[in-house]
Amino acid sequence: MQASQINEKRIKPMTTTVSPKLDNNQYESFTNRYDHGRSVRKMPVFHMNSFTIENLNKSIPITTSDALLTSSSNSLSSSLMTERNYSVIKESINHVLSPSNDNNKQCDPKLNCRLPKCFCPDVKPPCKFYILCEFNELMNGICFVISVGLKRKEIPQMILLTFDDAVNDVNFPLYQEIFDRQTKRTNPNGCPIKGTFFVSHEWTDYGKVQTLYARGHEIASHSITHGYGEKFSTKQWYREIAGQREILHRFAGIPRHEIRGMRAPFLQIGGDEQFQMLMDANMTYDSSISIFDNAPPYWPYTLDFGIQHDCMITPCPTRSYPGLWEIGLIMWHDLMGGGRCTMVNSCTSPTDEKSVFDLIMTNFKRHYDTNRAPFGLFYQSNWFTTAHHKAGFLRFIDEVLKLGDVYFVTNWQLLRWIQSPINLDRIDQFEPWQCQMNIKKQSECLVPNICHVRFQKGEKIGSRFFKTCQKCPNDYPWIDNVDQLMTVS
Ligand SMILES: [Zn+2]
């Protein structure tokens, strides 16, 4: 029985006992799971949802039992245990187990919120899922969904290094110093470390943004005017965020579909108006919500079932946004000030290089030594103008890269790993983190056009210089004329 045949067959419940067939390696890997908080020494243990399939073309109720199966006999001759088979039938299963949009229901990763499209807000890392089916000659069958957690040491510790605001001559040398190939800062798979830039419009040199993109960094939207969005309508959010995506596309030469995320200026989120805009604009993620709980820290999640943690800055989204990711900003312990801080800039400023290093390393360890939730280094570049800040920060990067299981990845690379988690020992085969994935079709912008353009800001009319390797516009792009930009293809 091939998994691909499942769609074509009518499958009815069986009463036979289903038992997994495991080789020694699988047996070992099923034991002592972090995420189920259960330690098993001799018998493999699975959390399972059993379900029966009658006709996958119809939505039918699923029998869920959340049973534990502890046998290791070999009676299941036709079990489908490979990832390949799983991926083939996963689509069918998702068809039956369609996520609920009702955020009053409980999010269940085995039942109504399944990867890669849905991931519950939780401190648990993502699981690998397997479908285990048994069929008889008449193609009657019963299937089980088995979730298999990863041990802490099987999870790469991802670090998200992000920078907000304009990119220009003032901060570009810093970015070169951190990322440039000459410094040989590479992840353990040999590829250069990468970051994510949330770019706001005013004072940005789009030639330099193009170069960052060409070097494999992720570019995301941080609005046009960099205003407080607390009371923005969905339309205003759209102009600010999708409008900035259009400007980045036009003047930094980045394909629109590769600008996937946003961060709200001042981390001032805008409730349902903002999140509805992200759905309307077909964007993949937001990274603006501060999360107070940090021990253990939350993993990024989708908003199918709402945010489900304390909301630090209002207004928060209240509705369901299926498939939209939130890469939350897990708050740090502020070692000097005693409270908590989200952006590193907002922590009490450490007085010397060692204090900077200790601040970052102490907060990093809470991720690294517990559930390996991605660790955020969220910055504005002006923090680095203090010499000991930069020295302590660079020392931290170089120290953690020696650990051998720490990866500096872009937000999109992070989401790709969550969507299909892969053990550290096979991470070299993980395509989204390969070096060639960072080579973009766009070239670096070394000699930009310097456009001298008219700039109307409200009633005031002036002019601006504007750098880009793309064609100069007639007017400086701004919130008042971005609608026009977005409608002209
Ligand atoms: Zn900002």
TrEMBL record:
Biased composition (Polar residues): 14-24
A Pfam family that the UniProt record links to this protein: Polysacc_deac_1
GO biological process: carbohydrate metabolic process
Domain NodB homology: 154-268
Annotated spans, Disordered: 1-24
A molecular function (GO) term: hydrolase activity, acting on carbon-nitrogen (but not peptide) bonds
Alphabetical list of InterPro entries matching this protein: CE4, Glyco_hydro/deAcase_b/a-brl, NODB_dom
Name of the protein in its database record: NodB homology domain-containing protein
Organism listed in the record: Euroglyphus maynei
Taxonomic classification: Eukaryota, Metazoa, Ecdysozoa, Arthropoda, Chelicerata
